[in-house]
Amino acid sequence: MLEMNGVDYAYPGGIPALSAVDMAIKPGEKVAIVGANGAGKTTLLSILNGTIRPDHGAVRLDGAAIRYDRAGLRGLRQAVGLVLQDPDDQLFAASVFEDVSFGPVNLGLAQPEIRARVEASLLAMGIGDLGDRPTHMLSFGQKKRVAIAGIIAMRPRYLLLDEPSAGLDPMGVSQLMASLQRISADGTAIVLATHDMYTAYAWADRILIFGDGRIACAGDPELVFSDRALLARLQLEPPLIWEAARALRQAGLVNGALKMPRDREGLLAEIKLAADMAAALAG
Amino acid sequence: MLEMNGVDYAYPGGIPALSAVDMAIKPGEKVAIVGANGAGKTTLLSILNGTIRPDHGAVRLDGAAIRYDRAGLRGLRQAVGLVLQDPDDQLFAASVFEDVSFGPVNLGLAQPEIRARVEASLLAMGIGDLGDRPTHMLSFGQKKRVAIAGIIAMRPRYLLLDEPSAGLDPMGVSQLMASLQRISADGTAIVLATHDMYTAYAWADRILIFGDGRIACAGDPELVFSDRALLARLQLEPPLIWEAARALRQAGLVNGALKMPRDREGLLAEIKLAADMAAALAG
Amino acid sequence: MHIMEGYLPASHAVGWGLASAPFVAYGAYRIKRVVREHPQVKLLLAASGAYVFILSALKLPSVTGSCSHPTGTGLAASLFGPTVTTVLSAIVLLFQALLLAHGGLTTLGANIFSMGIVGPFVAYGLYRGLQSMGFGTAIAIFAAAALGDLATYVMTSLQLAIAFPDPVGGVAGAASKFLGIFAITQIPLAISEGLLTVIVWNLLAKYSKGELAILAKLKGRVA
Amino acid sequence: MRLIDRNAQTNRWRQIAAIEKVVLSLGMIVLGLCSASWLVQGLILATMLLLLRFGAGVGLADILKSASVPLLFILASTLAQIVTLDVNHMMPVIGLSPASINAAAFVGLRSLACIGALLFLALTTPLTDLLRLLRRLGLGAEVSDVALMMFRFVWLTLDCLERGRQSQANRLGYGGYRRSLQSIGMLLANLLPRVLGRAQRLEAGLASRGYHGELRFIVRERPLSAGRLLAVSLLLLSIAALGRIAG
Q1: What is the pLDDT along chain C (223 residues), one digit of tens a residue?
Q2: Shortest Cα distance from A233 to chain B (angstroms)?
Q3: Is the ipTM of this complex over 0.85?
Q4: Which of A225, A263, D111, D140 could cysteine-pair with C7, CB 3.0–4.6 Å?
Q5: Residue B198 at interface with chain D, using a CB cutoff of 8 Å
Q6: Is D186 an interface residue toward C (CB < 8 Å)?
Q7: Are B40 and B213 spatial neighbours (Cβ–Cβ below 8 Å)?
Q8: pTM of the predicted model as reported, rounded to 2 decimal places
Q9: What chain B residue is nearest to C208 in terms of C-alpha separation?
């Protein structure tokens, strides 16, 4: 369990970023933290992985508050990997293979184990063929996957990603989400901070709505968007699929007891279903 | 009229980017060029504004092929403004006002005219209050708008924007699109290159689908997405609103003769309409 | 302007290599010590080096319209101090030889001596000297950058003249010839580099105080 | 710089161990510098160009473009050498000396041959392969780390520079000398904080991967070929021998 209890943090200059934030991520969970740009999502993730130390409150891993010394941070970062939004902030080596090997080498693993991990991570991210490619000749989408591979090669139990879909086209996003699905299936908990409601809704087990320096609302993706006034105040909009599906239910075109569709195909199938029902009624 | 006739271009190294591209932008038009990442949209815009010289073919402004000498490029760039994707690459001066005045100063305008243009551009972009702000203290969305203001202060007749919605949250995108609407209302033609189908569909008069180095398909936003096989080959997806609205029509829940909704509210209104119709039929 | 591969006779190449070696070794030793104490300096140095490389590969508008490059040593010496600049220049020259085919591997020693040692030390000396004599920063920076660039070019001409003395005029005659021929591009370039460096310096001093403070700390540690 | 790097990364001999290419290239340069034979210089130049063009498959246009700046230097310096200048009299006397023409032409050819060998190395071997080699040969870890990281920062900085220049050109920032100088100055003043900021963010980015000041990673070694090394030695020896016989 990765937790944050009563965490306060102000940016240098005194502008408050987080106030009394409580949250917990369970092992293996898929969580999305949604919030507008500038809401402080990056700060939240940086606190979870120990890069930023909170002013008050504690971050706990498996119940123990983390210590901010070298050993404590090392342990935390081995368990909690953070992928930054801009992959250029994370890639340093000249080739992909070298770059991805950096984390495992720092863990002090043996050469064969490192090689195996690098290969496995590249495969998991769908870039098994890019090992020898120079870093500066990668496309943005490829850089993003290499940056993630560099973290998962360290086999963290919690993988935090900051705006993973930013800058990717729809195809790039769906390939990325498929890769994350594979990693999640191996038991890694994944936390994704994003303003992309579509991606968050389609993918998460649980959604935390973040704004005004705190978790305003948390829960099941199907229920969490119901408070429109709250969302508007935090400069957010519910995902279109959720809203359209709810409209279908409210209009009586789809049975309200039916599970909400989470992706495009699901919504289109519901429209067909609605037509059949209408036809039956009219019949 | 801004045109491209039979334009071929290969990247250094010989990889083809554009082959025999023909396109034309009419004065005052709102055009979206949609394509996957890496399809060459940035190259296309750079050719339209003379930054890249095509290997074959010509770019024409008001019928005359442009010359790639100093005077020719100056004339072209005065008429055709290009806003790059990353605003950090485009802001140089210390304050917003200074930065936006860079273009007008280079045009050799008189001081009062420069002031008037900068003020007007800031107002048009909805950032009239940011003039004195240091550029490094702006949010990402503000930077993006300052970068656009810097171009429109030169009063181009054609405004080209590369991925304007990238990195913005939904609220940021809608504020930006509202600003572009104001600029368009003043008679400026706007060309927007994007992979964001939602924004392109909600906004454009005409959509060009770009992939495999050419304009694969061009036309009315309501009709241009019909060829699913083509879109799939170019790694694109139709916008969800368009697809849901079409499904409602195909299912017979909405009258097929009705104009397609272009935004979220339109689609939700249609779902209500469909319910009323179904109720009437069942009635 | 660097001496190209193969242009210097073997003995001169070795000689200039030996002449440069102590400066580079001293700079490397200082850097090594600082990096061991403050590992975070490593990335800062790499970023600074990349900046110097990009600066020295930049095409400047000069009167002749040729594609001449600035040396960047004036700005680099003022920002990072001459010791760091020597090491960074050595790496930059290696990069230029292998990424731009400017200069060479056997002429590296000679080029380090002119662009990595003479240029930065002249520039830094002028910058400090003129400032302590009460001249304004703009004048000190202009002189440091323009004369640092010129000193590099004079040194290069001398190196060529020593290698290829004039059959009649000797080393002095040869030096005048090389100086004369390269002056066509180098003098306007030196003036441009001086002016450019003043613009950059003023902007940095005005708007990037934080960054300059970081570099000043680095300079203090290494020097 | 992109031109040379692109060829270095994509040529047919990219996967050959860097040490083999270094031995060939440096061997040729040393041979050229130590030989007074015109034939040897000619053979070196021809061999390097043929290997580049037909061995590594680098395009002729790319080879010529990479050689343009060195060629200009050779031209100017040879010109300076051909002319004699007597400064011992009251007025400098300028004249042509037939004796110096021969010597200057030889130096020009020697330099051309050595540049051929340097281009061979630059166009077939990524710079980072050479930096790693230097490290194994004893260059200190601190300096070689800085050089390796510099390579990464160079491309990031170059991208920023190019886009910044384009954006300034879009706003007509490059009309005339003064305006151009002003624009470049603004660009450079903007670039320094950006590149230093990048270094600080990278520091944080690497920290989450266990960075504590040491850049350690695993390199995929390319196997050495004894056969190729032997062929290189034979090639060098035979050119040297030919020079001896002809000279």
Answers
A1: 799 999 999 999 999 999 999 999 999 999 999 888 888 889 999 999 999 999 998 888 765 545 568 889 889 999 988 999 999 999 999 999 999 999 999 999 999 999 999 999 999 999 999 999 999 999 999 999 999 999 999 999 999 999 999 888 889 888 988 898 888 888 989 999 999 999 999 999 988 888 898 888 888 887 6
A2: 11
A3: yes
A4: D111
A5: no
A6: yes
A7: yes
A8: 0.94
A9: B94
